[in-house]
Amino acid sequence: MQSYTTHRDPDVFLNPEEFDPSRWLPKEQVTPSMNELFMPYSKGTRACIGINLANMELRIVSAALLKLYRVRPGGDMTSDDMEMTDHFLLVPKGGKCNLVFEKIKE
């Protein structure tokens, strides 16, 4: 299944032709249909062949960020927020992961 058309369904996504990451925030405005149709790597036999490469790149970028910044939880985070809930993917129970990045002095 390819995701180009499902990500641009005007019945599900407001202004589907716009790049608008804020449509996923706040969590309360995300509909079940939006979650069902969101497939960044597609699904099935024609899923993205580069998914493993993309995931590795995410790990490399994360490691590079952690080398430059000290990261701590935001002031509004609690231990309960970060308790894991098992869906198709693991997600924090609080539905958020607010982090503060402080540049490490060289």
Please describe the topology of this protein.
Elements lengths: L31 H6 L13 H18 E5 L10 E3 L3 E3 L6 E5 L3
Antiparallel strand pairs: 1-4, 2-3
Describe the 3D structure.
This protein has 106 residues and is an alpha+beta fold. It has a domain at 1-49. The protein contains two helices and four strands, in the order H-H-E-E-E-E. The chain is globular, with a radius of gyration of 17 Å. The relative contact order is 0.12. The mean pLDDT is 88.
In short:
By secondary structure, the protein is an alpha+beta fold.
Task: Give descriptors for this structure.
106 residues; alpha+beta; two-stranded antiparallel sheet; two-stranded antiparallel ribbon; 2 helices; 23% helix
Q: What radius of gyration results from the CA coordinates?
A: 17 Å
How far do the termini sit from each other? 47 Å
| Secondary-structure content class | alpha+beta
**Main sheet: strand order:** 1-4
User: Low-confidence parts, pLDDT < 50 over ≥5 residues?
Assistant: none
Mean pLDDT across residues: 88
Main sheet characteristics: 2 strands, antiparallel
Helix content, binned percent:
10-25%
